[in-house]
UniProtKB/TrEMBL annotation:
<dbReference type="InterPro" id="IPR047057">
    <property type="entry name" value="MerR_fam"/>
</dbReference>
<keyword id="KW-0238">DNA-binding</keyword>
<protein>
    <submittedName>
        <fullName>MerR family transcriptional regulator</fullName>
    </submittedName>
</protein>
<dbReference type="InterPro" id="IPR000551">
    <property type="entry name" value="MerR-type_HTH_dom"/>
</dbReference>
<dbReference type="Pfam" id="PF13411">
    <property type="entry name" value="MerR_1"/>
</dbReference>
<feature type="domain" description="HTH merR-type">
    <location>
        <begin position="11"/>
        <end position="81"/>
    </location>
</feature>
<dbReference type="InterPro" id="IPR009061">
    <property type="entry name" value="DNA-bd_dom_put_sf"/>
</dbReference>
Amino acid sequence: MHLDLPTDKRYYSIGELAKAFDVNASLIRFWDKEFDILQPKKNAKGNRMFTPEDVKNLQLIYHLVKERGFTLEGAKTHLKEGQKKTLDKFEVISKLESIKAQLSSIKNAL
């Protein structure tokens, strides 16, 4: 999944992430409560500010729950049992999808 987010930021608001993932901010708030892997900071107003690491973890949660159909409990268990392995696989899949998209655009340009 490719997110349309600036890569030079240290923190992302919940609104930016909701738009990038095409979900409601309430879902991201819910996932924040449910998944210990997410550790957003809160600013002076109490708004969640997500780091690039949180964004990666959100992508992984999104992948497991929305794309692979895991239940929340199943996703939590999966993350706890094989977090490193799952993250590595997910990063490989993401890179391959990015390469595929680039190759498709090159093919269409020919």
